[in-house]
Amino acid sequence: MVTKEQKERFLVLLEQLKMTSDEWMPYFREAAIRKVVIDKEEKSWHFHFQLANVLPVDVYKSFTDRLAAAFRHIAAVRHTIYVEEPHVTETDVQAYWPLCLEQLQEGVSPLVDLLSRQTPAVKGNKLFVTARHDAEALAVKRRFAKKIADVYASFGFPLLHLEVGIQPAEQEMERFLAQKQQEDEERALAVLTDLAKEEEKAEAASPSGPLVIGYPIRDEEPVRPLETIVEEERRVVVQGYVFDAEVTELKSGRTLLTMKITDYTNSIVIKMFSRDKEDAALMSSVKKSMWVKVRGSVQNDTFVRDLVIIANDLNEVAANERRDTAPEGEKRVELHLHTPMSQMDAVTSVAKLIEQAKKWGHPAVAITDHAVVQSFPEAYSAAKKHGMKVLYGMEANIVDDGVPIAYNEAHRRLSDETYVVFDVETTGLSAVYNTIIELAAVKVKDGEIIDRFMSFANPHHPLSVTTMELTGITDEMVKDAPDVEEVLRRFIDWVGDSTLAAHNASFDIGFLNAGLAKMGLGKVINPVIDTLELARFLYPDLKNHRLNTLCKKFDIELTQHHRAIYDAEATGHLLMRLLKEAEERGILYHDELNSRTHSEASYRLSRPFHVTLLAQNETGLKNLFKLVSLSHVQYFHRVPRIPRSVLVKHRDGLLVGSGCDKGELFDNLIQKAPEEVEEIARFYDFLEVHPPAVYKPLIEMDYVKDEEMIKDIIRSIVALGEKLDIPVVATGNVHYLNPEDKIYRKILIHSQGGANPLNRHELPDVYFRTTDEMLDCFSFLGAEKAKEIVVDNTQKIASLIGEVKPIKDDLYTPRIEGADDEIREMSYRRAKDIYGDPLPKIVEERLEKELKSIIGHGFAVIYLISHKLVKKSLDDGYLVGSRGSVGSSFVATMTEITEVNPLPPHYVCPNCKHSEFFNDGSVGSGFDLPDKNCPQCGTKYKKDGHDIPFETFLGFKGDKVPDIDLNFSGEYQPRAHNYTKVLFGEDNVYRAGTIGTVADKTAYGFVKGYASDHNLELRGAEIDRLAAGCTGVKRTTGQHPGGIIVVPDYMEIYDFTPIQYPADDTSSEWRTTHFDFHSIHDNLLKLDILGHDDPTVIRMLQDLSGIDPKTIPTDDPDVMGIFSSTEPLGVTPEQIMCNVGTIGIPEFGTRFVRQMLEETKPKTFSELVQISGLSHGTDVWLGNAQELIQNGTCTLSEVIGCRDDIMVYLIYRGLEPSLAFKIMESVRKGKGLTPEFEEEMRKHDVPEWYIDSCKKIKYMFPKAHAAAYVLMAVRIAYFKVHHPLLYYASYFTVRAEDFDLDAMIKGSAAIRKRIEEINAKGIQATAKEKSLLTVLEVALEMCERGFTFKNIDLYRSQATEFVIDGHSLIPPFNAIPGLGTNVAQNIVRAREEGEFLSKEDLQQRGKVSKTLLEYLESRGCLDSLPDHNQLSLF
């Protein structure tokens, strides 16, 4: 009861609050203060009021506001209202609803937002609100039911129960899920509510414009180029592109933003510390690829040991990007563009180039890499993403079929002819633009020089420096010389009708003909022989065929190279030698020279020129793929080449363009008059010209005189196009996106040194030009003409090209007639052999379910192929281990592809076929069942079954493309590969190709090399930028170690990809796919035929012991014992420095797994499978299962080890199988559990620890993979326990790579000392020492078990195998450090031929080096041999 005093106190309070007037008093009739609780520490007063009824909401508000205000200076005020028998209506509850939500103290939450948008309904003491779906309803109820009841109670209301109904809204559901995820993340960050509010305020205040941290930087402040920053400075302003940014929280609570920026003159690291929370929030919005302006001081940072800028202010600025301002519909199309697949030459990724073309509004863009089409897959996906038309093509290397050796053929006998061997020196390389300055010749008859001719000619202009340096001719020599016409006239008369010969005759004859043409005379009609091409034909293997190289070969004197008279004499002698060789090969007449050279190998002789090919349609694409394949497989010589005749044959559907300055059109225009080039031009569908700047290197190399001459040639090409009605297009020969990217290409090309001719001159500017930039380049042709070649013609070419899809959409599996029936029949036949006829229901159901799925999706062929490969290997005596999830298919077990049986654990009688299944989850693996005899016939039961669901292999619908990975013995792998050729035919199987690109480390090497060769001092940030620009460029091609791609017989490989040799090694046995195999993974079947040590070890053990590995028991107690102690080996843990006996057992020998074994002490096969799963998953053991087992929450067999465990466990718990599968997939991919999953699991009493464990997992092993590996391991362990010496012999032979023979021979003390030495090094130990450590551990164990190593024995050691000798092993020769397998085999071969008579004899016949001989001698292996052969007289 309330006392009178308490009521009076309340009145005093009301007076204090000035609430005693008539408008308030009626509500406070029987009111009283029950008590006031004062908390001194928190400075708070808590009033407990008693009222007659709940106050109307406005009265309540005024009362509480005034109460808080009145005591604010003393303390914070809280209060609770009690009403004994409250009478409340629905209206009251609704009126208080907003106040209630305010007091939930939830900050910004989507759920409160949801509640605030509705008015609750009230029935009795229940409060009804609605949510949009189950999950939301659950969340609202779980989170707010109690809170809302409490808040209403503090207002004086009776206890209200929150009920949440569902009012569905589909699209809101999706929004909610996204929001919920976001909210969870916020929760996870545990952001306090007030911080959330503060941030909200900050965000509301922050401008939506460019980012500003600190103060704005005025435009007037001068911006310094980064290259000028070389020392510490007080205050600088810099601006640049951010290429790396990261935000870190410091221990002090401040935030540090570290970014690297570049203005392309240099780069620098910028550090910025946050001043307050607002800064910290803004910093996280600094991202890569922004442009920023920064003000701060330059300091020497001890942390990065480099200059850095400590920023005070940072402003985002607009990027200075190039734009294409040409009007819509009048934009160019780039028809000549290289991607990083142009080997070590182009640097911008194809996706970026396509994105840029799209941004600029270009109608299309072409891709033309050097000789390859490897960027098509990436280009295709980028084109789809950006909605861009891509023209697929390449820049091919074309060679003429056989270059003529003889011109103006005549039937003259070579040995009787008089020859005029001549040479011209000129002012340059172009017969049109340059002129002859010296002409010299010798007449040769019957091998003797009978006459000489020599004259300078006056060019009438000073000679260039290059000419003087090359020829040694000076202006002095030619200034009084006769004119060229006079010299030529004299020469022609002197020659008469002799046969002419010259080295590289096409050049010299070109000048003669050009000179004669200027005089109005016809061309030379004498027969001609070109000694260069003749030498190439006769001696194709020389590295080059220059005159000085050939003279060296034949010992011909060449005193001053590049002076006509000396060159002519030397060529005369050379001609005699070559003609003599030709006569020996049966070439007697001048007109026989050419017919003989058009042979198969002629493609190797001529120099390739470039053309651009573009595919117009699917036919063209397939032809392009064929050309790429032919050029890589049949016509590869230094580069992939395509003979012109081959191109003509496959030209259908291709557009052929005339290429760059390395194309024949441009090359011929330098040397010949335009009318002579017409015939060449007719071959092309379009003629290409580049901007004059792109041809710059030609001036530097003196091929052309100056830019004017380049423009002349461009004009000639344009005129040619008009005359022949062939479109002329302006192309950019693009190698990178922006001008500033040029440096990356420079670095790549510089890294190749002299091997790349591009290193001989400055690289031209070949960035991706906009329409305007291109029009500027060609303005010298006049605006109209420029627009025609830049815009109209390029668009015209693009419009000739239809839609081309380089990557197919469907999967094409091979067909084998009757495969479906064969798999069905084979499965049933083997199942009935094992389980009897009729089959037990459980077996039949599983078979039917699998066969329906496998045959229905056309996968039977894949099973049949795998079956044949495995069968062949088993017939040849090698076991095969299965990898991956194929063991979860019972059909695979029945077709012998895997030994893992996925049925529930069971007994089956080998005699009368009676079986007994345990499908309640009580047994983990059939191997763990106790031994038992068949109740019907008394035979001992066979035990099997690992309880693995089929779904983990082919997905729940059974439509996942199966990946069957098989582990063949390493030494058998090549035979298995070749067997696929037998199965499908040579042209239907290829190795899976890979593309090797420049990796980060390599790129750093290139950059550092470039910097040191150019004496550049680069800052760390600049090195990072340059290295990043060089990564990802193709370096080489290779092959996947085991992947074989199978093309079905109803398709050709060219429908999917071109082919080539790995790394273009034409001697390789296998051809690979030209595309990286990942890009055609969904179109063709890939068989994984991998090499592995386990089957090799088991084969060797079988050979040594005669035991069939399949008969080895899997539940031998001694074998199981070594997984938990060392007892079965008969040693103590101290002896072998390890607490378990699994050293050297595959999967269980590593330190990590041995540690797990010590902690868990597994006793059964299924527990070993668990260990295998736990050790290979990510976040499955550490911080997860390990803790659960240590805390005693559960045992080893209960924790989650493999992905299949989850599905099986949940199904046993009663979950819907398809949901169990979904949960398993979500967990194994590291995606955790959704609230719906959790709720469902809780409904079926799944324990909380299980749910938590699922949430931590990132990646899991399939159980079938683990079971297959453990089975191999247990077999090997059996030998380790029962046949130790055999085990050690096979371990050292097959698995061990590094040996320390000296320690091993000395015995355990020496081995232990060496192990301790390596252990002491810890992380400093090299990889070689770490691998040696494992070998030493096995050796120590072997010695402690009473066995020993003997010394190498010259007559008993094998080449590569350890030999058993009593209780000892004799090491093979290749265990000697530095002695390879080949030398080891040599010694054995020499030994078979007869005993070694002396050390000298051993050295010579066994091809043993001096060092190895000394090694053997010092170890006492050669004591019986004398040093030298003793002369035996008897």
Biggest sheet architecture: 6 strands, mixed
Radius of gyration: 43 Å
Number of strands: 40
Helix content: 40-55%
Provide the β-strand percentage band: 15-25%
Terminal residue distance: 138 Å
Number of helices: 54
Taking strands numbered 1, 2, ... along the chain, how are they ordered across the largest sheet?
A: 15-20-19-16-17-18
Structural class: alpha/beta
**Form type:** globular
As residue ranges, the low-confidence spans are 201-207
Q: Provide the residue-averaged pLDDT.
A: 85
How would you explain this protein's 3D organization?
This protein is α/β, with parallel strands linked by helices and 1434 residues long. Helices cover 41% and strands 16% of the residues. The chain contains 54 helices and 40 strands. The radius of gyration is 43 Å and the shape is globular.
Give a brief outline of the structure.
This protein has 1434 residues and is α/β, with parallel strands linked by helices. It is built from 54 helices and 40 strands.
Give the helix/strand layout.
Blueprint: H1 4-16, E1 32-39, E2 44-51, H2 57-70, E3 76-83, H3 90-102, H4 110-116, E4 121-123, E5 126-131, H5 134-154, E6 161-166, H6 170-188, H7 193-205, E7 212-213, E8 233-249, E9 255-262, E10 267-273, H8 277-283, E11 291-301, E12 306-316, H9 350-360, E13 364-370, H10 376-386, E14 389-399, E15 406-407, E16 418-426, E17 436-445, E18 448-456, H11 465-471, H12 475-479, H13 484-495, E19 499-502, H14 505-518, E20 528-530, H15 531-538, H16 547-554, H17 564-584, H18 593-597, H19 602-605, E21 609-615, H20 618-633, E22 636-637, E23 639-640, E24 642-643, H21 644-649, E25 654-657, H22 664-671, H23 674-681, E26 687-689, H24 696-700, H25 707-724, E27 728-730, H26 742-750, H27 771-777, H28 783-799, H29 819-835, H30 841-856, H31 860-875, E28 881-883, H32 890-894, E29 906-908, E30 915-917, E31 942-944, H33 951-954, E32 965-969, H34 973-984, E33 989-997, H35 1000-1013, H36 1020-1030, E34 1034-1046, E35 1059-1060, E36 1072-1073, E37 1085-1092, H37 1093-1105, H38 1117-1121, H39 1133-1136, H40 1151-1160, H41 1165-1176, H42 1181-1190, H43 1203-1212, ...
Parallel strand pairs: 2-3, 5-6, 10-12, 13-14, 14-24, 16-19, 19-20, 26-27, 32-37, 38-40
Antiparallel strand pairs: 1-2, 4-5, 7-12, 8-9, 8-11, 9-10, 11-12, 14-21, 15-20, 16-17, 17-18, 21-25, 22-23, 28-32, 29-30, 29-31, 33-34, 34-37, 35-36, 39-40
Helix pairs in contact: 9-10, 15-17, 16-17, 22-23, 26-36, 27-28, 29-30, 29-31, 31-34, 35-36, 37-47, 37-48, 41-47, 43-44, 47-48, 48-51, 50-51
